[in-house]
Amino acid sequence: MIFRKFALTFLTFPLFTSFLSADKKQKLFVDTLPELKTGEAPQTWNDTWKGFDPRAEPLDVEVLKEWEEDNIVLKVLRYRIGVFKGRRAMMAGVYGYPKGGEGLPGLLQIHGGGQYADYKAPLTNAKRGYASLSISWAGRISAPGYRVSPNEVKLFWEGKVEDPRYKITTDWGALDAYHAPSRNGKDAFPSIPVADWTLDPIESPRNNSWFLATLGARRGLTFLERQPEIDADKLGVYGHSMGGKLTVLTAGSDKRVKAAAPSCGGISDRYTANPLHLLTVSDPPSLKEITCPIIFLSPSNDFHGRINDLETSIEEIKSKDWRVTCSPHHNHQDTAEYEVATQLWFDQHLKQSFQLPETPNLKLFLPPGKSPVVTLGVDESREISAIDVFYTQQGQTDGGKDNSNNTKNRFWHHSAVSKHNGKWAAHLQLFSVDKPLWVYANVSYKLKKPISGAGYYYGIYSANRFTLSSLMRVSTSSELKKAGVVATLKQQVLIEDFEGDWQKEWFSYNSKKWGIKTHKLYHPAWEAPKGAKLYFEIKAELPNKMIVGLDSYVTEVALTGNNTWQGVKLSVSDFKNIKMESQNDWSEFKELRFDDVEQQRAKKESGEQPRTFGAPWKGKAPEFRFLRWLL
Predict the structure, then answer these.
(1) Would you state the pLDDT for residue 38?
(2) Which domain does 571 fall in, by range?
(3) Whole-angstrom distance between the N-terminal and C-terminal Cα of the chain?
(4) Of the residues 181, 208, 235, which one is the last residue of a structural domain?
(5) Mean pLDDT, range 306-327, rounded to an integer
(6) Do both 572 and 481 map to the same domain?
(7) At residue 608, does pLDDT exceed 50?
(8) Which of the residues 92, 105, 328, 496 has an alpha carbon 20 to 30 A from that of 438?
């Protein structure tokens, strides 16, 4: 109750200041960051943060909405980010904690691009004994009775308080660190602009939105440490995508962070041509300052936090306490056994209630005249549910700009492991020695009881196991040739026999549906012969419709059911995109998928209407066999 009265007192603060003259406002609001004395922009990470004290200013907390759910106290609120060009900036967010909680660890959750500060993060964290603040650096909020979408953000910018949809949200004041959309029509994350809505009149990292959003996150740590239910010495930070990068920037700039868990970001912003960006707001300067325990969640095909940069990032951090978890085939989203690593990391380092095993130790051997072999040192202190090795030859070593299509679609072979003389080992089948080799291992461990949480996009998951990954090992083509290893994988028409561990080379993001995907068709070993048709057999319990998809192209298949095997033969012309166009051959396709129903949506500006293929599934999940090219 004391906190509520304190917050509501500050809610009247903007009204009070509205009656002040410009001169008195200037005296009341002292700018957060010092002026550039010499007229020169900061040139290093340290100089960029010089003069900023995240604890110096009052928080001016405003509670916009408060409610209870499942004995959890939840609040939509704002706190002061700082004062820039004489105008106050305020960060909105959703805060939650278990009612009556004391001495709780505090978590700062940072959303990604296009995402929202969402009440489900503090709600689920509170159920596990944490107090959490989900900040809305882009202005969007998702909470019961308080939703701020991009349309409401624009209403706030325009001050249309008479509109019934109007909601108070994040206010960057004289600056603009919004995203999707940005208030001034220019995204200041990849650039360092100079404009009337930037802080410094010259090119300066303090004009970049990564810096501003990180500053707002650091002020969020100040909010957390001042809450009576929180132990200020137990603060963690995590986020996904852009929130992953902001997690790294926050952990690198603020020693109050005692544990960090960035996902799909914070490791790959290292290739820009702007030298000032590289020296200040790129990933390496912050990574090199991280001393707290950190776990990186880096799916193998992610376009934003690329797994190829992970080992370099581990070498850059100062912390010796780190882990990585890398799901195979996934791009920018994950499943429960990988997402839960965030919760377990905080349980270990903020609550001391869990202990993760050590990182698997993978070694790569290149025996002459044979296939490459990997050995694994595995921590067996907990019950293991699976050990898997994944490898690819579809990567880049040329140092050029990332080939995003290849990064997102490269195929990862799976190799089973076996134990010999106390060591786990796997043999790798190469398709060619003219291509490099990338390989890593996953070790999955059982949980004694399921753990639930809000995932990357706030979907509620429940995990009964977790996975830790080794660092990736790389061998160049010249190294493969020099060692004299041999390629044993030949081109073949059988794409999948659906036997043994076949699921390891397929993937899905939805465990509640049977739909599956693979990038096998993108690999040259399964390249379609000229004039081939795609063939498979399927057994369904009941009559159904299903879809077969190839990238943005899809076709619909009618199934007879009756638990009998039905052959399906498809030509490339059977697959249509949203405009009902087809491709001339199979060569451009990268992802193959089977599912029950799919809706294709066109870009808004195209005017094309959505098209729905297939239908909701009836009966048991289908069975497949003999997926191959038919000549």
Answers:
(1) 82
(2) 502-630
(3) 75
(4) 208
(5) 97
(6) no
(7) yes
(8) 496
- 71-112 confidence digits (pLDDT tens): 999 999 999 999 999 999 999 999 999 999 999 999 999 999
Q: Does 437 fall in a domain?
A: yes
Kindly state whether residue 243 falls inside one of the protein's structural domains.
no
Helices (H), 288-419: 310-316, 336-350, 404-409
3-state percent helix, strand, coil for the chain, nearest multiple of 5: 20, 30, 45
d(CA 30, CA 53): 13
Residue 3, pLDDT > 80, answer no
Q: Residue 238, SS3?
A: strand
Cis peptide preceding 181, ω within 30 of 0: yes
Tokens of 472: 């990736």
Q: Which H/E stretch holds residue 213?
A: helix 209-225
Q: Has residue 529 been placed in a domain?
A: yes
Do 525 and 469 lie in one domain? The reply is no
pLDDT at 10 over 70: no
Instruction: Clarify whether residues 485 and 532 are in a common domain.
Output: no
CATH number at residue 486: 2.60.40
State whether 547 and 524 are in the same domain. yes
Residue 28 is predicted with a pLDDT of 64
Residue 585 pLDDT class (50, 70, 90 cuts)? very high
315/399: higher pLDDT: 315
CATH number at residue 594: 2.60.120
Q: Are residues 385 and 458 in the same domain?
A: yes
- Mapped onto helix, strand or coil, the DSSP state of residue 94 is strand
Tens-digit pLDDT profile for residues 478-511: 999 999 999 999 999 999 999 999 999 999 999 8
| CA atoms of 325 and 466, how far apart (whole Å) | 9
Domain assignment present for 478? yes
Rounded distance between C-alpha atoms, residue 11 and residue 5, angstroms: 10
Same-domain status, 481 and 523: no
Query: With b meaning 16 or more CB within 10 Å and e meaning fewer, what string describes 332-353?
Result: bbbbbbbbbbbbbbbbbbbeee
The residue among 188, 208, 228 that closes a domain is: 208
**Domain count along the chain:** 3
CA distance 603 to 362: 44
Q: How far apart are CA 274 and CA 562, in angstroms?
A: 62
**Rounded Cα gap, residues 112 and 5, in angstroms:** 32
Cα 77 from Cα 62, distance rounded (Å): 5
Task: Find the mean pLDDT for residues 271-293.
Answer: 97
What's the pLDDT score for residue 607?
Answer: 76
Q: Give the C-alpha separation, 411 to 399, whole Å.
A: 20
| 141 and 88 fall within a common domain | yes
Six token digits for residue 384: 């293991």
98's enclosing H/E stretch is strand 87-98
For residue 396, name the pLDDT band (cuts at 50, 70, 90): confident
